[in-house]
Amino acid sequence: WCRDDLIASFHIKGIVVLWHLSKTPSNKASLIVLNTTTSAIPVCISTLSSERGFVVGDSCGNIALFNVEKDSAEEICATSLCKKVHAKEHINHIKAFSDGRVVSVGNDGCIAECFITRENELVRGSSTPIPGVTGVLQMWYNDVCLDNLPRIVTGYFGNLFTVIDCTGNFEVFKFETGGRQRQISHLISVSPEGNLQLSRQSLAVCSNRKDGRNEVMLFSSLHSNHRIFNHAMGISLHGEPIYDACMFTTADDLDYAALVSGSEDCTAKLSFLVNDTVTTCISMPPQESCIRAVATSRKFGSSTSLLTIGGGKLSIDFYLIKDMNVAGKIFCRDLVQVHNVGRGGTHDMANIDHRINTIKAIPNPFSNEGNSSHFVGIGDSNGNVDFFIVQEERRHERFIIPKYHIATQDRPILSLDVLSWGNCFLVIAGSTAGRISIWCITVNQGAELRYTVHDSPIHEFKAHQMGTNAICTSILNNSISSLNLVICSGGDDQAISVIEVIISRGKNQEMSARTLSKTLTAEADVSALKGVQFINQTKFISVGYGQKMLMWSWSRSNGNELLGAICVDVCDVNCLAFCRMRDRAIAAAGGEGLEIIEVKKINE
Questions:
Q1: Ramachandran class of 100: left when φ > 0, alpha when ψ lies in -120 to 50, beta otherwise
Q2: Among the listed ranges 150-154, 174-178, 281-285, 597-601, which one has the minimum average pLDDT value?
Q3: Distance from C-alpha of 221 to C-alpha of 203, rounded to nearest angstrom
Q4: Helix (H, G, I), strand (E, B) or coil at 335
């Protein structure tokens, strides 16, 4: 069926017969005969937006364009012909769009694009292979917001019939058919947004048995009269596990939040959380290896955020995210500008054996007025911590070198936190040995800012038996001469450690620190903890491989008190992101997927 009143039948020697059905029963159907002028057999057809034009794909990878002005008994030859769009393989499905694009899929496992010019000629465009499929049978697009690639495709990988989500590059389901030559028929229900409907998936495979009988095997999902799920899947973020994530809000509106996620699929994506739903996302250019850490920094009242991405081979990328500040508009991808500031490099040479493990960034309070900058700390697998001062203004050089470098005794560095106090930056680093060290970088303000790194940490202590995976800090008291700080950490030993530290500044600006109290909650979770985050001065949340998000309250007298817990329906949880909004707070647990959880009682 081409449309409600038009049927196409395919014949040998490139012939397509269109049967135009009349709405009046007494009238006969009129015929239109199309000739592709090739010897191949037509396989699929699509109607142009004008409804008087057609594109036809055949068994030899050719696509023919037809313009039919009126019904005619004579053969109508192709206006234009694109040969071998899919090499010499079958074109199984073809779709024409109103903007002049013609998209087709075939047995070569590729999605091919052609374009109809103003001269009514068919011009070949790009051809994109679909990972995990050797032959594509059918495709579905998001009809609400058309993308360059289809949302869902079905096809074969060897003898396996499979359904692929092209947006996230992951496999939805597959069936063993026993051979590509067997006859199959499949039913997949897809919404106008391009999402699969969970209750409508089935496949029938017909095969010939040796005794001469036909055997039909039917695979089907469970059908229900009650609609349990609206869609089987939400928005696709990544095709591999998420290693790190962070969130931030806009400068003027705290009702909406943005989320940055980095994955093993070598990409980082900027998504938007609107009305408790993760909406469309912006993909950053992929790095050569997996993304291990992401961080954002925004000065209060500013409309610009710095995004830092780090991953394998010690690769670092810096981006600026600028809000367009259009009144009355929701914070979304159309109102955000993202551009690359430059690439960064550590003091070590790029090596396949080393990677960036953790990143922390904060606005630089010492930057000159009108020339905002950010202080970025980066910890790697070689036990080093590098510090960058990244300017918001567009730079001519594309490679940013670190300002300073710390070589710790422990490798690798797994977690970092950074804060500014007085005329210095404090860097708290956690290592795989379970130790936490506090480093100080002094800023000398004059005609030109000078940063001085102390040769050794001002304080160091053992927080875990192994693997300090996550660190967060909370300031209890702050004065010119002293800082009362609480350091919370989660480790591979399944424990949560809370250390109260006081940092003092002497008359000669010498720095010293000592531990006031230490609280260790052993077996805080059933497995390794991967994220901790303070939600106010004394309350914090934690998450890990145990797939539970826990809320804790700390006090010097009572230690860590468990307030509540909620299950997280994400496997291999690797990270925790947190963001305060206008009247509430939200947390995101990332791993093999991403789950958004509302956090309450943050002000009690």
A1: left
A2: 174-178
A3: 9
A4: helix
Could you give phi then psi for residue 324, rounded to 5 degrees?
A: -85, -20
How far apart CA 329 and CA 255 sit, in angstroms, is 12
Q: How many CB atoms lie within 10 A of CB 543?
A: 31
CA 407 to chain CA centroid, Å, is 32
What's the pLDDT tens digit per position in 429-481? 999 999 999 998 888 776 677 777 877 889 999 999 999 999 999 999 888 88
Residue type, 54: F
Q: What is the 3-state secondary structure (H, E, C) of 572-591?
A: CCCEEEEEECCCCEEEEEEE
Sheet with 63-67, side-by-side order of all strands: 42-47, 53-58, 63-67, 80-82
Separation of alpha carbons 386 and 395, rounded Å? 20
Burial (CB count <10 Å: 0-12, 13-18, 19+), residue 115: middle
Query: How far is 98 from 436, CA to CA, in rounded Å?
Result: 60
Query: Helix, strand, coil: what percent of the chain each, to 5?
Result: 0, 55, 45
Residue 171 has which token pair?
């496999």
Spatial neighbors of 360 by CB under 8 A, at least 6 apart, are 295, 376, 377, 416, 417, 418
CA angle 392, 396, 402 (to 5 degrees): 65
Instruction: Look up the pTM and report it.
Output: 0.62
- Residue 333, classed as helix, strand or coil, is helix
Q: What percent of the chain has pLDDT over 70?
A: 81
50: number of Cβ within 10 Å: 11
Helix (H) or strand (E) holding 431: strand 424-431
Pull the structure tokens for residue 416: 């970092």
